[in-house]
Write a structure and sequence with these properties.
It contains eight helices and 17 strands. The chain is of the alpha/beta class. The chain folds into two domains: about 240 residues, QueA-like (3-Layer(aba) Sandwich), CATH 3.40.1780; about 80 residues, Thrombin, subunit H. The strands form three sheets. It has a nine-stranded mixed β-sheet, covered by helices on one side. The chain has a six-stranded antiparallel barrel with strand order 5-6-7-10-9-8. It has a two-stranded parallel ribbon with strand order 4-11. A hairpin with a 6-residue loop joins strand 1 and strand 2. The chain starts with about 30 loop residues before the first strand and ends with a strand.
């Protein structure tokens, strides 16, 4: 009988800090690809991906676009506050994370972008790690503030602020719909040449939109993973993609999700609706070992943080023991980890 009683510690692993990629490679598709579909992983280069797929397969991408979600602010006392916008509720209200020596309390005021575009805001409420922030005037609104004073929000493990190169490289080449505060990083390996090679091989392309939230970097704090509360993320699954998936399945092709966000969109919709249909909603799906995947056959993904919900997701997809084995291989072979790191190709476990 398959094991189901996993704890947070089961998803830990030792990672040398020097393997955490701090900058992108010069060429997107020159990253390494660990072909881990079978028991024995094979070391490849990402540009080989089209040759590993079959005519009739379908790649499903997340076409969200990362916004300049990091804003600086100050308290009336002068204390520094960093704002990370999770999502816009309206032009003048936003759900955010606030970082300060002492977090502002509900009812308090802060001044956003004091050096560039002064705007006053009130902390309306707090729900665990997230705050609701309301601007006191309609102009400038949050979109204006982000456009004129915001910064691209690199993940915390990069230990640096965004540079000019990140403006291009921390976006996928097919990014379209603005709204994410973190990139769907599996897609960062695709360049125009790789996409063209996939099409030339007879592989179809389809798109979903899931706006990745800052909650994707929040740690799991409870050893009993069943007690963990997932963050919500907005998604859109268009009819064209539903039709493309149905056609792929009908011809015996495989649905290949590019990234865990595409997996969460497809499987979250199937779980909520009972089947796959055009849908726009929020998902807080928490995928752990024992989950039954109904849509995705293969997955392209980066290497994830220890003890993260994404480690749990890939373990559910490819098998816990298999993931432990390929992560050991990746560390031993000095793969690059996390957002600007290398990728792996996984197949859904049949056991």
């Amino acid at each position: 009988m398959p094991r189901t009683n996993y704890t947070l510690s089961d998803f830990d692993y030792k990672l040398p800090t020097e393997l955490i990629a701090q900058h992108p490679l010069a060429v997107r598709s020159s990253s390494r690809l660990l072909d881990a579909r079978d028991a024995a992983p094979v070391d490849r280069v990402f540009s080989e991906l089209p040759s590993l797929l079959q005519p009739g397969d379908l790649l499903v991408f997340n076409d969200t676009r990362v916004i300049n979600a990091r804003l600086n602010a100050i308290k009336p006392s002068g204390g520094a506050v960093e704002i990370m916008i999770e999502r816009l509720i309206s032009p003048t209200r936003a759900l955010v994370q606030l970082r300060a020596s002492h977090a502002p309390k509900p009812g308090s005021n802060i001044i956003i972008a004091p050096q560039k575009q002064r705007a006053s805001a009130t902390v309306e409420s707090r729900d665990d790690r997230f705050f609701t922030l309301a601007l006191k005037t309609a102009s400038p609104d949050f979109e204006t503030l982000m456009r004129e004073a915001g910064e691209l929000p690199l993940p915390p493990y990069m230990h640096r602020h965004a540079e000019k190169v990140d403006g291009e490289r921390y976006q996928t080449v097919y990014a379209k719909h603005a709204g994410a505060v973190a990139a769907p990083t599996a897609g960062l390996h695709f360049d125009d040449g790789t996409l063209a090679a996939c099409k030339a091989r007879g592989i179809d392309l389809a798109y979903v939109t899931l706006h990745v939230g800052a909650g994707t970097f929040l740690p799991v704090k409870t050893e009993n993973i069943a007690e963990h509360r997932m963050h919500k993320e907005r998604y859109v699954l268009p009819q064209s993609t539903v039709d493309a998936i149905a056609a792929c399945k009908a011809r015996g092709g495989r649905v290949i999700a590019v990234g865990t966000t595409s997996v969460r969109t497809l499987e979250g919709c199937a779980l909520e609706c009972g089947d796959l249909r055009a849908f726009e909603s929020e998902t807080e799906i928490f995928i752990t070992p024992g989950f039954e995947f109904k849509v995705v056959d293969l997955m392209i993904t980066n290497f994830h943080l220890p003890k993260s919900t994404l480690m749990m997701l890939v373990s559910a997809f490819a098998g816990y023991d298999h993931i432990r084995s390929i992560y050991r291989h990746a560390v031993d072979q000095r793969y690059r980890f996390f957002s600007y790191g290398d990728a792996m190709l996984l197949a859904k476990s049949t056991s």
